[in-house]
Amino acid sequence: MASAFVNITKDSARAWGRWLLDLVLPPRCPGCGAIVGDLHSFCAGCWISLNFLGERGCTHCGIPLAATDSGTCAACLARPPLIARTRAAVEYGEVARHLAVGLKYGRKIALAKAMARYMAPLLDGMAADALLVPVPLHRRRLAMRGFNQSLLVARELGRLKNLQIAPQLLRRKRATPALKGMSFSQRRRTVAGAFESRPGAAGRSIVLIDDVLTTGSTAEACARTLDRAGATRIELLCWSRVVHNPIFER
Ligand SMILES: [Zn+2]
Ligand SMILES: [Zn+2]
Q1: Hey, is 34 helix, strand or coil?
Q2: Residue 15 contacts by C-beta under 8 Å, 6 or more apart in sequence?
Q3: Which letter does DSSP use for residue 91 in this model?
Q4: How far, in Å, from the CA of 36 to the mean position of ligand 1?
Q5: How remote is the C-alpha of 56 from its chain's centroid?
Q6: 249 C-alpha vs ligand 2 centroid, how far in Å?
Q7: All domains of the chain, ordered by start, with CATH?
Q8: Ligand 1 center to 148 CA (angstroms)
């Protein structure tokens, strides 16, 4: 009990210290640390190197379209995906990775605000009763890391867009190994059935929130769970997505 109290005191002292530093220190670029004019904005160099994706690409899955495609890619036309709309703020590259890794492993919590700032416009026009649902971590991973990076981003988005967040709606009931290096079908098999839904999804429009989108197999497993629980529409919004990846193609 005493040590828990000491930890809380230390943590809040650290948070206060950081808040005070934010007041007196100039804002820094979330990509490279250079001093910038506005809080949570990029320097010119990082800005130029980022590929902002916006509403470009297939109306459903968001992948870049061939010149011959209409607004929807051939795969989505043949079989409309469970996730009705997938969007990411930027293409996964050096700067995008720096933010994702800095938040997840470097515990630089302020990076969630920078990510949300550039993701928020992609929620324009969203129904006021839509729910933002961060992709959950397994409880063991959560205990190790201490926080869910997607929840931090979802919280910021909820605040910026005045949307409700529902972090309890999905639960990762089974821990899954890192998907890196697996093929698309291996990934899909690995995460299938890893999630369960708690009451509250029925009849709702849901936006899944994640940091990095590679093949989308994790988001698809989440969407399948929410679909079974009666969600009427499921979308996915990420900070960044891998665009040129052979296993990304379906
Ligand atoms: Zn920079
Ligand atoms: Zn598509």
Answers
A1: coil
A2: none
A3: E
A4: 8
A5: 18
A6: 10
A7: 1-49 (no CATH), 52-248 (3.40.50.2020)
A8: 25
- pLDDT for res 245: 56
Exposure string for 28-61, b = 16+ CB within 10 A, e = fewer? bbbbeeeebeeebbbbeebeeebbebeeebbebb
Spatial separation of the C-alpha atoms in residues 214 and 182, rounded to whole Å: 11
Q: Could you tell me the two tokens for 81?
A: 């995906």
Residue 68: pLDDT band (50, 70, 90) is: low
Q: What is the pLDDT of residues 99-155, one digit of tens each?
A: 999 999 998 989 999 999 999 999 998 999 999 999 999 999 999 999 999 999 999
Residue 1: pLDDT above 50? no
User: What are the backbone dihedrals phi and psi of residue 64, each rounded to the nearest 5 degrees, phi first?
Assistant: -60, 145
- The residues, any chain, with a CB within 8 Å of residue 67's CB and separated by 6 or more, are none
With CA atoms as reference, report the closest residue to 115 among 43, 41, 47: 41
Is residue 243 scored above 50 in pLDDT? yes
Q: 28 CB contacts (<8 Å, ≥6 apart)?
A: 34, 35, 36
User: What pLDDT score does 10 carry?
Assistant: 67
Separation CA 120–CA 59 (nearest Å):
18
The residue type found at 70 is S
Could you say which ligand is closest to the alpha carbon of residue 70?
2
For all residues of the chain together, what is the average pLDDT?
A: 89
Interval between CA 31 and ligand 2 midpoint (Å): 30
